[in-house]
Amino acid sequence: MVVVVGLAAIALLGVIDHVTGPEVGFSVVYLAPVGAVAWAAGRGPGVSMALIAATVWGYVDRSAGLEVSHPLIPLWNALVRLCFFAITAWLIADVRRMHNQERLLARSDALTGVANARAFVEALEHELARMRRTGNPLTLAYVDLDHFKKVNDTLGHTAGDELLKEVAARLVHSLRAVDTVARLGGDEFALLLPDTDSAAGGIALHRCHDAARAAVRETPGVPADVGATIGAIVFQQAPPSAEAAIKAADNRMYKAKRVGRDQLLLAGPDRPGSSPPL
What we know:
With 278 residues, the chain is α+β, with helices and mostly antiparallel strands. The chain contains nine helices and six strands; from the N terminus they run αααααβααββαβαββ. The protein has a six-stranded mixed beta sheet with strand order 2-3-1-4-5-6, with helices on both faces. A hairpin with a 2-residue loop joins β2 and β3. α6 packs across α7 and α7 packs antiparallel against α8. It is elongated. The two termini are 56 Å apart. The C terminus is likely disordered.
C-alpha cells in the first residue's frame, strides 16, 4: 500500500514540477515519498522508488526544454539525482532496520531469546484489557527450576546457561504462537496463555512441564534433584492489575514448591488440580 501511495505522490510531484517549471526546485520534495517508502517497506522498494523519482524528475527537466552546453549533461544530472535518492533510501532503510533490532533486543531476554520481564508485563496488560472486553478466560503460569544453583556449581555457568536456553526453547515449542514465554530472571519463566480455560490450560501446561523436565533429564551431569515447578492460575474474570495477576501465579508456584517441588499446580475458578511429583 505504501508503495502505491509513493508512486502516486511522485506522479503528482512530476505534474506539479512540470506546471511550475524549472525555476521552482523540487529535489527535497521528491525525496519525501522515497524516504517514506524506504522506511515502511525496506531497502529494495526504497531504491526502486529512488529510480522512479530520478526518472520522473529527469523527464520533467527534459520536457521543459532547458538548454545545456553538452548533450550528456541531462544524463549526468539524472545519475547524480539517482545516486542521491538511492543513497538516502538505503540509509533510511538501515536506520529503520537498526531501530527495529534495538526495539526487539529491548523486549527480549539476551540469553534465551524469549520475552523479557518488561515485554511480558506489556503483553499481560494487553491481554487483561482484551479479557475485560471479551470475557474470555486467561491462564497465567510461573515456572521455576528447582535447585538450579547446583547446575552452576557442579557443571559451571556455561552449562547452566545452555540448560536455560534449552528449557526456554522447549517451552516455546510446547505452546501456541499466540502464547507468550518470558524469562523473568535467573531460572524463573512466565507463561501467558490467552483465551485458555482450565481444561485447555491443564493440557498445555502439562505439556510444558514434561518439556522442561525432559530438558533437565537430558542434560548430562545434572544433579538428580534438579527439576521444574510450575504454579498456574486460570482467570475467568480479569484481575484488577497485571501485578495482581502475577502475584497470584507466583503464590501458586511457591505453594507447589512447599508441597514437594518438581510438579505442576494449576488452580482456577473452574478446576483446581495438580500433577503428582516424580
